[in-house]
Design goal:
The chain is mainly beta and 350 residues long. Helices cover 9% and strands 44% of the residues. It has 4 helices and 22 strands. It has helices spanning 4-8, 199-209, 218-223, 227-237, and strands at residues 33-41, 44-55, 61-68, 75-83, 86-93, 103-112, 115-122, 125-132, 167-170, 175-177, 225-226, 240-244, 248-250, 259-262, 265-269, 276-285, 291-303, 306-313, 319-328, 331-336, 341-345, 347-349. The strands form 3 sheets. An 11-stranded antiparallel sheet has the order 14-13-21-20-19-18-17-16-15-12-22, with no helix packed on it. An 8-stranded antiparallel β-barrel has the order 1-2-3-4-5-6-7-8. The longest helix has 11 residues, at 199-209. The chain starts with a helix and ends with a strand. The structure holds calcium ion (2 copies).
C-alpha cells in the first residue's frame, strides 16, 4: 500500500467507515497479537504487520498499530471489529509517516485460527489481502480463550437477592463489588484469575469438587461471592509446581546401578486439566561436578499421581527425551530417557 505508485494516487477522500455497526454479531475469534498481512494490488505485494493490542471480547471491537515491512517509516493505526467470522477494519497512516492520513478500509473472513483473507479499498485502489497470525476462540465471550477456560457458557451473575458489601459478581465485563464505606480491602479480581468462571460457576465448581468443605452456600448465591470464596477458588485452580533442589539419576533401572547424574528439577502443571505447562531439569553429568545440560520441560501430564514429562534441550547439545513415573507426596520416582531410574524429593507448591 505504501509505495510511490500508490502514493501518487492518493486523493483526499473521506471514507465513511462501516466498522462497528449496531447489529454486529459477537466475535467468534479474538485476534489479539501480531498478524502478517500481504496486500495484493494487481499482482504487486505489499507486506505489512498489524499488531492488535486492544480487543473487546463482547463487541469484537479492536485497535492496534501497523507498519509497512520494507520501510518502517510507514506506520499506521487500525481500528475495526470482528463479528462472527468476519472482520472489518480501517487503517489510517500516522501523521509522522510519509503519507499521513492515507486510509484503507478492509473486510474479510477469519478462515482458521491462523489465517484470514479479504478485500480492501484505498483511494482509487482495490486490494485483496491475506494475513497469518494467531486467533483464539472464546465462545462465551468472557475474555478467556476456550483452551484456557475452566467454565464454558459463562453468563453475567445475578445474585438471587442483591449484591452485598464486599461480595463479588461478574457483570458481563468485570468482577464488581459493592464497596464498604470508608477504606475497603482494596481488592480486585479478573476473569484470568478465575480461569473464565463467574461467581455462580465458582460456587457450582466448589460444591461439585469439594462438597464436604463447600455445602449449599445459599448466602453466596443470594449476595455474591465472598472474598474468601474467590480466593479459595483461585488457589485451588491455580497451577501446581514440584521443585527439587537436587535429584538422582542412575545408569540403570534401579538404584543398584551407578549414579549417572544429579541436578535441580522442577515442573508446573494445571491441576484441573493435568497439562504440564513448563519446568526444567538442570542435569549435571557426571554427578555434582560435571557438565550442566539445560533440559526444558516441553510438555506432559499429571493424572492422579502418574506423571509423564517430555524434555528438550539445545545446550550444550540438541536432545529430546521423556520421563514416566509417579509423584507420591514430595517424591518423584520413575524412568527417565528409557530404563534409567530417576528420583527427586522436593516440595509441591500452589
Ligand atoms: Ca471464555
Ligand atoms: Ca467462561
Amino acid at each position: 500500500m505504501s509505495n510511490k505508485t500508490i502514493l501518487l494516487g492518493v486523493i483526499a477522500v473521506t471514507l465513511l467507515s462501516t466498522v462497528g455497526t449496531a447489529f454486529a454479531a459477537t466475535p467468534n475469534w479474538n485476534i489479539t497479537g501480531t498478524w502478517n498481512f500481504d496486500f495484493n494490488l494487481g499482482g504487486s505485494h505489499y507486506l505489512h504487520t498489524m499488531t492488535v493490542t486492544n480487543f473487546d471480547p463482547i463487541t469484537g471491537a479492536f485497535s492496534g498499530t501497523g507498519v509497512y515491512v520494507p520501510d518502517s517509516s510507514y506506520t499506521w493505526k487500525v481500528t475495526g471489529v470482528v463479528s462472527g467470522d468476519t472482520i472489518s477494519f480501517t487503517i489510517v497512516y500516522d501523521s509522522t509517516s510519509p503519507n499521513p492520513g492515507y486510509t484503507v478500509t478492509g473486510t474479510g473472513t477469519i478462515t482458521s485460527a491462523t489465517s484470514m483473507s479479504g478485500t480492501a479499498t484505498g483511494p482509487g485502489q482495490e486490494f485483496t489481502w491475506t494475513a497469518t497470525g494467531t486467533a483464539t476462540q472464546d465462545f462465551d465471550h468472557d475474555g478467556v480463550a476456550n483452551s484456557q477456560d475452566l467454565c464454558p457458557g459463562t453468563a453475567k451473575d445475578v445474585p438471587t437477592e442483591k449484591l452485598n458489601v464486599n461480595r463479588w459478581i461478574w457483570d458481563g465485563s468485570n468482577f464488581v463489588t459493592n464497596s464498604p464505606k470508608g477504606k475497603g480491602p482494596q481488592l480486585s479480581f479478573s476473569m484470568d484469575q478465575t480461569q473464565g468462571c463467574s461467581c455462580t460457576q465458582i460456587l457450582d465448581w466448589l460444591h461439585t469438587n469439594y462438597p464436604a468443605q463447600y455445602g449449599d452456600m445459599n448466602g453466596q448465591y443470594k449476595f455474591g461471592c465472598s472474598i474468601s470464596i474467590m480466593q479459595d477458588f483461585i488457589k485451588l485452580t491455580s497451577p501446581k509446581t514440584f521443585t527439587a533442589a537436587d535429584s538422582l539419576y542412575y545408569n540403570g533401572p534401579t538404584d543398584s546401578a551407578p549414579l549417572y547424574g544429579t541436578g535441580a528439577f522442577s515442573f508446573t502443571w494445571n491441576p484441573i486439566t493435568g497439562a504440564v505447562t513448563g519446568g526444567y531439569y538442570n542435569e549435571i553429568v557426571p554427578p555434582v561436578s560435571g557438565t550442566t545440560y539445560d533440559n526444558i520441560v516441553s510438555g506432559g501430564s499429571v493424572v492422579g499421581n502418574a506423571v509423564s514429562l517430555t524434555f528438550t534441550r539445545t545446550v550444550p547439545n540438541n536432545y529430546a527425551f521423556s520421563f514416566t513415573g509417579t509423584l507420591t507426596g514430595n517424591t518423584l520416582t520413575g524412568q527417565l530417557d528409557g530404563p534409567y531410574l530417576f528420583t527427586a524429593t522436593g516440595a509441591v507448591t500452589q
